[in-house]
Amino acid sequence: MHIRAQTVTMASPVDVIVVGAGSRGQTYSNYASLHPERMRVVGVADPRKFAREKLQKQHRVSDNNMFADWHGVVEREKFADAVFICTPDRHHKDPAVALAKKGYHVLLEKPMAVTAEDCTEIVKTCIQNGVMLSVCHVLRYDPLIRKIKVLLDSGVIGDVAHIQHFEPVGFFHFAHSFVRGNWRNEAESSFSLLAKSCHDIDLIHHWAGERSCLKVSSFGSLSHFRKENQPTGAADRCLDCPVEKNCPYSARKIYLDRVKQGCVGWPVSVICSNSIPDIESVTEALKSGPYGRCVYQCDNDVCTNQVVNMEFEGGLTAAFSMVAFTEKLCDRKTTIYGSKGELSYDGCEIRVFDFLSGITKHRAAARAPEAFGVSGHGGADYHLVDAFISAVGSGDPSLILSGPEETLLSHKLVFQAERARLEGKVVFCDT
Ligand SMILES: NC(=O)c1ccc[n+]([C@@H]2O[C@H](COP(=O)([O-])OP(=O)(O)OC[C@H]3O[C@@H](n4cnc5c(N)ncnc54)[C@H](O)[C@@H]3O)[C@@H](O)[C@H]2O)c1
Questions:
Q1: Which of 182, 309, 324, 343 could connect to 336 by a Cys-Cys bridge, CB 3.0–4.6 Å?
Q2: What is the pLDDT of residue 329?
């Protein structure tokens, strides 16, 4: 399928430096390969030589513009229009602030930062330095999710009274990312509501429109993936485990069986940090690396399930749930109830039930080129980069749907929800 990039006229391609050449940095950089007339990757910063050189080769980046750390970019005179900051969660704020001060427009991975104060500092710095900021709340760019907002604003279900939104993380996805992987431990990354669901709270905030959130409560905990639940006789590594066959979280099943079937995409693709994934490198990663650990013997502490209840101005209520133990992998389910009808969304289709006239269905016309990336969030990753490049290329920040002020408000809501959970109380939001 041929996808047209935004029809914004650009005199020359936007030059981008990729800071953090891991999974996300690589995905976003694919835009330059698809649309070389609109974007060029002209610099890469990453301490991992393997990841850095992979991008260098793909985009023919000159040796001068290769850095083992983002500080190297800051020390040089500005030599591009924009930066993609795709470093781990706790390494967002410092490069974002330093590079915005150098005058680079910033595409910043979510979460913006791990404290409300740091998020505020990023936004202030970008505004003060006159640079554009786009936070990678990719769902905002999903054509169907955009359609939900258009439908709500057109009054198709009347006055919106309640929003119910559910995020199924997926049982093996949760084990991969939040038990064994990079987002397992709050002190090393962030709490799971921020890491996984700041997208979702952002969507609820967006759908609520002009109405501010007044109150929030939240409950949740880490269930199941605890040492006391390790089955009798289990080993601390799946490759040595005599009871692994009965375990749905077995690393042998999640990674080794997949690579044996020729599937080398995510999550297999991210467990061999310095080599191409094949049977040999995956076996080695499971023998010695974090992804071969028994899920009941990890240093994980983030919540597996969490609910957030919100009350907005005008009596609008919203209920959000995030659950680890699901068949579906991140395919959100949403139902929005209004005075004239009900709107539901399942990741593929929007269904509107009008109380007078019955059902209307909406499907998305344009997804994204398959070549763009492995996951792509149903094409939303592509549209996110497309909007940012169009904004920078044309000097029009209104093309960015996840800009500074609104994103800061929805991030603050996430921090307030987590405070409500930790303190076991209703938090009255500062409007
Ligand atoms: N928008 C989304 O839907 C979405 C999805 C997944 C991850 N994320 C977020 O994207 C970010 C990156 O995630 P990922 O999955 O690509 O992780 P990753 O580990 O694959 O990539 C991160 C890269 O940053 C590099 N890095 C670390 N320190 C650095 C430094 N000082 N300078 C330059 N590079 C440095 C690492 O070596 C690594 O290659 C995280 O914040 C994550 O939470 C967002």
A1: 343
A2: 92
pTM above 0.90, yes or no: yes
CA–CA separation, 352 vs 361, rounded Å? Answer: 6
Task: Judge whether 1 lies within some domain.
Answer: no
In 3D space, the residue among 101, 195, 169, 152 whose CA is nearest the CA of residue 411 turns out to be: 195
Whether 208 and 287 map to the same domain: the answer is no
Do 51 and 190 share a domain, yes or no?
A: no
CA of 109 to the centre of ligand 1 (A): 8
Position 347 scores a pLDDT of 87
In a shared domain, residues 102 and 168:
no
Distance CA 87, CA 70 (A): 9
* Bond into 111 cis (ω within 30): yes
Mean of per-residue pLDDT scores for the chain: 94
Q: CA-to-CA distance for 140 and 149, rounded, in angstroms?
A: 10
Q: Is the pLDDT of residue 379 over 60?
A: yes
| Residue 353 maps to a domain | yes
Angstrom distances, CA of residue 341 to CA of 146, 233, 354, 394, 425: 19, 54, 4, 40, 33
State whether 173 and 309 are in the same domain.
Answer: yes
The residue whose CB lies within 8 Å of the most ligand 1 atoms, and thus the one to mutate among 65, 85, 87, is 87
Q: Which amino acid is at 372?
A: F
Ligand 1 near 47 CB (within 6 A): yes
> Can you tell me the mean pLDDT for 345-372?
86
Given this model, what pLDDT does residue 430 score? 76
Protein residue whose Cα sits closest to atom 33 of ligand 1: 46
> Do 179 and 225 form a contact (C-beta atoms < 8 A)?
yes
Structure tokens at 289: 């690396």
**Beta strand ranges found along 9-138 (DSSP E):** 14-19, 39-45, 66-67, 82-85, 105-108, 133-135
Helix or strand run (H / E) with residue 217: strand 213-221
Q: Check residue 3 and give its pLDDT.
A: 47
Name residues whose C-beta falls within 8 Å of residue 262's C-beta, 6 or more positions apart in sequence.
none
Number of domains in the chain: 3
23, 27, 85, 112: residue to mutate for ligand 1 pocket, most atoms within 8 A of CB: 23
**Closest C-alpha among 375, 343, 408 to residue 147:** 343
pLDDT digits (tens, 9 = 90+) for 281-324: 999 999 999 999 999 999 999 999 999 999 999 999 999 999 99
